[in-house]
Amino acid sequence: MKVLAIETSSLVASVAAVEDGRLLGEYTINHKKTHSQKLMPMIKALMDTLEIAPKDIDLYAASSGPGSFTGLRIGITTIKAIAYSLDKPVLGVPTLDALAYNIPNNECMICPIMDARNDQVYTALYKWENNKQIKCTEDMGIPVTELIEMVKAENKEIIFVGDAVPKHQKLISSTLSVKSHFAPENLMLQRAASVAQLALIIAAGGRMEKASDMVPFYLRKSQAEREYEKKGLI
After folding, report:
1. Of 37, 46, 167, 175, which sits most exposed with the smallest number of CB within 10 A?
2. Domains in the chain, ordered, with CATH?
3. Taking the model in full, what pTM does it have?
């Protein structure tokens, strides 16, 4: 099965093609959040290089959230449009699941953290068990201090990964001491290859979606919506 996956939940824009678990190619940019301008040219460049036509793709996948409201909308709308025009199935892959999947099988817990502003993070906890990555919590949007207390209670070594690591690494290291580790730079940020691999695993379990049913997962309301609520406008 050939999968084309994209990742647009943050500053990173990433496109990958995978066939039966083998990475055919990946194109990633981590420079300015202009997904609306860069995403389609990236998809075309990757497919042209691999000599793959859109009709050759069996499954289209996208990181579904949480993350940037605008980025998620652009990514999912793009994938839906391509898949719908070709009558191909799609899959939305939770962003935190894919980010955690950057970290290979090991005995530590894994904690992806994405910057949610105001010293808050989007996060969840994972572990490897019998060569499968297991999700131990629901997706959360919480203050980083609350996450640290949660991790303390687990009393296990843990690997942090994600775009919020540079912002909170000093606090995490000083609070959790030797129990905290951080992903290497080449695995730190979102990757479309991880989205594609998880999409293959999900599809093998019998779940795929129609393009018309694919929606982003925001986890919480946008800043604009929260401001409107404060003013009693919604």
Report:
1. 37
2. 2-95+190-230 (3.30.420.40), 103-182 (3.30.420.200)
3. 0.92
